[in-house]
Structures are given as C-alpha cells and as structure tokens.
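Morning!

As promised:
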Amino acid sequence: MTTLTLTHARFQLLETVRIPIALIGSAFFPAASMLFFVVPFTGGDPVYATFATASMVIFAVMTTNLFQYGIGVAEDRQQPWDPFTRTLPAGPGPRFAGRILAGLVLMTVSLLPVVLIAALFTEATISAPAFLAAVGAVIAAAVPFTLMGLGIGYALPSKAAIVVAQLLFFPLAFGGGLMTAPGSAPGFVEDLAPYLPTGGAVRLMWAAVGDFPPDVSSLTALVGWTIALAAFAVWAYRRDEGRRFS
Amino acid sequence: MMSLVRSGAVVGRSDGKLARAINVSRRYGDVLALDNLNLDVPAGQLLGLLGPNGAGKSTLVNLFTGVRRPSSGRVELCGGDPRDPASRRALGVTPQETGLPASLRVGEVVDFVRAHYPDPLGRAELLDRFGLSDLVKRQTGGLSGGQKRRVAVALAFVGRPRIVFLDEPTTGLDVEARRALWDGVRAFHADGGTVVLTSHYLEEIEALAERVVVIGGGRVLADDTVDAVRGLVAIRRVSLSSAVPLPDLPGLVGTERDGDRLHLLTPDADGLVRDLVAKDVPFTDLEVRPTSLEEAFLTLTASLTRSPTGSAR
C-alpha cells in the first residue's frame, strides 16, 4: 500500500469526521436497532442474543457500505475537485484504494457499538475461534455491499443515489431475514432470504457464531451476487469514466 | 525570492515544445468541440488563450492536462501522453474555486496536493508566496470568493511545475489582489516557467501574455502577438439609418439590420464614416460604439471561417 493511498484515505476520513452527523448517522442506525429490537427481546437466551447480534452486524455492514459509497461517490462525482485530482501526477488507483480503506474504517466504527451493546446488555457469547470466523464473515459480507454501493454511486447522480440506497436497504434487510431470528421470519421471507445478498451474508455469519448449518445454495447465491455486483460496479465505473473523462 | 521552477529542467523529446496538439479533434456526441486543431507551446512562453464561451478553450485545456482524451489526433505534454501520470509531474493546474473540498483546511488541501509530487514546495513557502499564510487553519468552505481563487491558483504551483494552466485566474479578485497575482505569474515566467492562461478578459491577456491564440468554433482563428490580436478584435460598431441601400464599403467585417437601423462592424470606424460622407450616403442618427470582446470574437469567428487569413489555421 502506498503513502498516497494513505493520504487519500486520511482526507476521506477527515472530510467525514468534520461533518460528524454523517458518522453518527451510520453508527446510530445499527446501535439503535440493537437497543430497541434485540436487547429487550433476547431475555436470558444466549443463543438467540448471539444470532440477533450477528444479524445486526450484517445490517450495519449493509447500511454503512450502501450509503457511504452510494451517496459519497455520487456526491464526489459532482464536485469540480474530482477532475482536478485527475490532473495530479497519479493514476486513479490511490484514490480508489484510499476510498475503500476509509470505508473499512467507517464500517468498523459503526460495528463497534453493536458489538459493545451485545457484550454489555445481552447474554450473547462467542468463543475466540468463532469471533475470528465472524470477522472473516464480516469481510466476505462487506464485499458485495461495497460493490453495490460503488455501482450505485458511479451509475447515478447523487439525488437519485440517495433514493435508490434508501429504497434498497429496507427490503434487503427485511427480505434477508435480518429483523428476525433464524427460522422465525414469515414464510415467504424464509423461502426468499437465502437467495438475497443480505440473507446469504447473515447465514454465513450465523454459521460462524453459532450452531447454524452452513447452507450451500445460499452461499452459492452470495458468491453469485458478489460476481454480479462486481460486474455492475465495473460497468458503472467505466461508463462514468467514458462519459466524463473520455 | 525562492524559485518556483524546478531547476535543471530537462526538455522532453519534442524539441523544446512543452505542450503540443497535433491535428486534434474532439467530439461530444454530435458536437465538434475541437476541429483538427494544431498548437505548439514552446518552453518558457507565456501564452494567452482567448475565445468566447463554447469556443473549445476548456476542452483544449482538458486534453493538455490529461482529463480527457482526443477523439482523433495526438496531444503531448512534456514529451509524453498527458494521460500518463508521469507526463504530469511537471504540470500545474488551477482547480475551479468552487471545487475546493469545503470541510478541509487550506493547509490540508495544500498537503494533499503536495503528496502527489516528487519534490513539492514547502507548505509554508507556498502559502507565504501567495499571501495565504493567515488562512492555513481556515476551512476552504468558509473563505471568500477571492481567497478561494488565490488558494486555487497557488495549488497550480505546488509541484514546482515547468508548465501551468491557469483558467480565469483573477475572476472575482479585487484590483490589488489581481495585480499581486499577475506579479506572481510574471515572476514564474521570468524564472523560465511556461504558462497557458485562459481568460475572457483581453485586459488580462494584454497584461501578461507574449503570444495570443484566439480559438473559435474549435479552431485556431488567430495566433499572433498581443498587439496584432488586439487590432483584430478591436472592432467598432457604426450604426445609422438610411433611406437608400448602402453602396459597397471597404473594410466591413459584418452588417446587421435591425428594423430601419443598420449596424456596420469595422476595424476602422473613421475610414468608414469618411467613405459614407464621400459617397454622399444620406444617413441619419450616426452612432459609433466599441464592441464587446464577445462581439469581436463572433465577428472574427464569422469572417475567418468564411475567408481564412494567413494567420489563421
């Protein structure tokens, strides 16, 4: 990783931190959902609390990546600063890598309250190996939603990107079974969920943290989504480059 | 005073030409923004690019600075392709002042740009040079228009460039700030720096440039000294009413009719009036007015596309 990538990441983060409401916003949603929908209902059941926490972690992964890339990229593209950076003697690599790096930092920031609330206010438990597996599942789950956000950000103007990100996030969260414990969602959601990116990601996460059987078809669907969203993001990026900078 | 130019500059392959456009055309869909244009910028020259909005100035600058690629033809910067980051190491460009990242401080923006260059100017030195030292802690979003403009111009000089593209550098500046900036550009040029300056204002080009290129309709309409181009664009508008059709008048570059008023465009208003009198034209309500630069461009565009002169290409 180059120093220039770090410089870009630092400036992305500075811009975000200077408008702290954005940071609070991305951390608030998952934390509030934890407090209102998980803490009061888990009672003394450690298994349910652990699964619910895992769901909220995936929820946070989805919302932060969808919003920060979808809206952030679309807004940056409208600024004249963006073409100026292209006259500096560096290719697009460091800027792109810096953005992803900053995105990972912000995602971690929004995950911390969820994990802290789970540890302090619920009976959720996790062993050290399972925690490592969960970290791996978070990274795997972050990839498709990062790509989805980037694709939206590069494909749409910022006003449209905000609307599309908002329209997507709720059906994805509900349809993927993030709002309910494993096996207790309404029937159509149970049928549909394994094949949505949120459902695939959360099943991977459940398998990592508890006694939940890994589901091959759901995992295959998640890999398929990742490939499809990568193609979408690359298409949107190239199309944008071709329109604005060809 | 500390030199802004990298010393021991090695001139690229292109025989002392820091920027070249060779048979360059650029289309946006159906619109032809640049039409088979040729332009050389030798090292050490202070070149003014003049032209009305939509003439192709910005497109040409975008090609030279690597932001866009030509539809056909070749563009060179420092002997290489400007789309290659290595060719841009000796390039400086002003961002649009509205584009500075609003939440970042002036010093941070300077550091960000500095991080891209192998041997940048020191932050304090650059800010001092452009009179911005007091603003180092201020967020760019809170600066006045003139302050933003000065920051934007300073950013072009961060990497000790050999060639800078200054786009409307003094728009929105008061007289004092404008003079200070002009002095800075002159000092850079005196040290051997190459400058391409775009402007709507003939005054700015007159104050700084050695050579003026007028662009219109995507082509080079005139490429000459400041004096020669000033003569070309110094067109007068002679308006009159006349009951009879006008005879042939020498030196007219354009005629417009507006009801019973006739507007005659000419570089020599005195000669035209003498001719009108000598030929006994019965005119009333004679008015002679200077034209705006915009009008002069339009006239120049029209007359030169009809009959290209020696200086136009």
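Chain A touches chain B at residues 3-4, 7, 11, 14-15, 18-19, 79-84, 86-91, 245-246 (CB under 8 Å).

Hope this helps with the figure draft.
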